[in-house]
Amino acid sequence: MLTTGATTNWAGNITFGAARLHRPATSGELRRIVGSADRVRVLGTGHSFNRIADTDGDLVSLERMPHRVDIAPDGSTATIAAGMRYAQVAEELHTAGYALANLASLPHITVAGACATATHGSGNVQRCLAASVAGLEIVGPEGDVTELRRDTETDRLSGAVVGLGGLGVVTSMTLDIEPAYEVAQWVWTGLPLDRLGDSFDEIFAAAYSVSVFTDWQSDEGVVWLKCRTDLPGPPEPGQPWLGARPADRHHHPVPAMPPLHCTEQLGAPGPWHERLPHFRPDFTPSNGDELQSELILPRTAATEAFAALRGLGGRIAPLVQVSEVRTVAADDLWLSPAYGRDCVALHFTWVPDHAAVIEVVAAMEELLLPLGARPHWGKLTTVTPERIVASYERAADFGRLLADHDPAGKFRNPFLDGFFPADSWRADR
What we know:
By secondary structure, the chain is an alpha+beta fold. It is built from 12 helices and 22 strands.
């Protein structure tokens, strides 16, 4: 299926410049589109807030491609269609008795898009979603198909998974899986922000997945604890904990919003895929009412980063709908912000006022970049591409990987060229 006309991202702050939007329904159709195009980018659910997916050539959506979830005989991996959303994959895995170790807050995003940008959930031992990828199938610039597998090309796969869409069209992915499990979710309100820094390790060790929500001005936070029922549980319900109180009702991450579409709380156990995200899969998020930015820092910088944000609280609070603090374990993916370091992730959901928001984002980045912050690849930032690339030890290797997979630059766009100029690396260097 081919359409023309303006297409926007999820938030409506980006209008794509593509001449055509394709929705192929078969592998053969996809390969013909890619092979005949001059420039190609892939569009997932559009849940990005910059021009990472933009092109003046052809956009390709995989939403009409056949779904598949093929579980390996030993139950250790599942090969899935890359354009599927996490909610779709999770439902099929759970029905078969299996699970993923981690999920993001929104189950509506595509697996390929989330992994290509190093999107993450939360948890001291949970790496970003891309770290679960054990294999990729990629349609290259001539419509050719390349496979990368962890067991045969470990380092190359580590470079390709967080690929920013630059290596080709990822059509299938093999993911690590495990037996299904249950999770109970608890919310604690009124956490003094002084305790967030002073008791950071205790707070984020309290459950399998932990998030703290605040606006950085109110001096309080709300803690969401997602506890696997087969692992040690949270602080005893009904008892004070670090100055926080157990909630007696359901909560939404954004204080003014009703919790109708949030996953079940109050400690009721349920399937992993119905508790790890913050939002239910049958809820379709609204469009156009927010912007997002995120900075990922070394975990060792958490306390200093919190102090810096509290110092900016008077500027942040009028524009932020909510800010979320999470932890992410270290990985070995070349362009992951958590490459080689355990991290604290500082996410911001803003009101849709780009001019005002970007000034505050710049002020935060000025304070947090010296602490080792790296911006999320799919969200707003004011940091120059040169400075971002300089913070990644394997950036030059990724540049050579791009040149090797796509020597003519079919999958490039101005966003990617800003970070990895086409003439900066040659495949034979």
